[in-house]
Amino acid sequence: MVDFSVAIRTYNKAHQIPPILEALRSQIGTESIDWEIVIVDNNSNDGTADLVQKYQSEWDGPFPIRYFFEPRQGASIARKLAIKESRGKFIGFLDDDNIPASDWVAEAYSFGEAHPEAGAFSGQIHGKFEVEPPPNFRQIASYLAIIERGDKVFSYNTRKGRVLPPGAGLIICKQVWLDCVPDNLLLLGPVGKSLGLKGEDMESLAHVQNASWEILYNPKLHIYHEVPAWRLERDYLLSLVRSIGLAQHHIRMTRARPWQKPFILPVYLLNDIRKTFIYFIKNHKSISTDVVAACEMERLTSGVISPFYLWRNATKKLS
């Protein structure tokens, strides 16, 4: 087992792989760390395999680049293969639009070693926007995995709102993940060009939390998320928050204790309907013109639909 693995899941983003690899080549403070790069190609057809092979043949770093092909599309499926093939005690995940800071590997490894109570941890994700986001974008920034939650270490286990970090920039203890997270998760996340049902990161981390492991925030960890203009368009953002909202019920059920599960549907459903109604009354005039208000409304309504949507789809699979 090596100390640290950087796992990169990619789908048809060959043009974005070189900046990530160059940022990893330039990491500082890693002289005493035994680490590797693991690339999982999630069924790309844009020359990703050839590009990685070229990098491998010319690579002069003291850490290897290892390549694996996963024909079944889905973020959680690709992540599962990355975990299986990574040899590190800790695995740090990067999406194919994430550029790590120059000390990301060293900071992640040292933090993991200093916090054996943590089954997983994450840090700050800063947006690199192709176009200027709307003025009130911060209200929905977390839906695009933009995370800037202050300059102090904290535990997500005790944070209000029951939020959890996204998969981008997430660092896990491999053995904890193998022990706690089931092989077959319901939520696949992005599947090819489709968003699928988002929330695969929260589903996995919920299992880690349920096993009494801490999930921590380390503000000294920085990655930079490249956000193209089309990801700020209204239609895309609405699709994104819809996919998050439709997964809401399953996440709640995963995080609930056994005695709570019989009460979750009626209690949360009534509260969700109440919050949706109140938000609509307060913001109905701006929903058609303000993309942030529209996104919040879409998330709320999708959350109300969530248990019935999941039940309907489960029924279809059984029929």
Topology:
Layout: E1 2-10, H1 17-25, E2 35-41, H2 48-58, E3 65-69, H3 75-85, E4 88-95, E5 98-100, H4 104-114, E6 118-129, E7 154-155, E8 171-173, H5 174-180, H6 200-210, E9 214-227, H7 234-246, H8 248-255, H9 261-283, H10 291-318
Summary, kept brief:
The protein has 319 residues and is α/β, with parallel strands linked by helices. It has 10 helices and 9 strands.
What does it look like?
This protein has 319 residues and is an alpha/beta fold. The chain has 2 domains: 2-232, Spore Coat Polysaccharide Biosynthesis Protein SpsA, Chain A, CATH 3.90.550.10; 237-318. 41% of the residues lie in helices and 20% in strands. It is built from 10 helices and 9 strands. Strands 1, 2, 3, 4, 5, 6, 7, 8 and 9 form a 9-stranded mixed β-sheet that branches. The protein is globular, with a radius of gyration of 20 Å. Residues 314-319 have low confidence and may be disordered.
Keywords for this entry:
Spore Coat Polysaccharide Biosynthesis Protein SpsA, Chain A, 9-stranded mixed beta sheet, disordered C terminus, 9 strands, alpha/beta, globular, 319 residues, single chain
Provide the low-confidence segments as ranges.
Answer: 314-319
Number of domains: 2
Overall mean pLDDT = 92
CATH superfamily of the largest domain: Spore Coat Polysaccharide Biosynthesis Protein SpsA, Chain A
CATH topology (fold) name of the largest domain: Spore Coat Polysaccharide Biosynthesis Protein SpsA, Chain A
- Helix amount: 40-55%
The number of distinct β-strands equals 9
CATH architecture of the largest domain: Alpha-Beta Complex
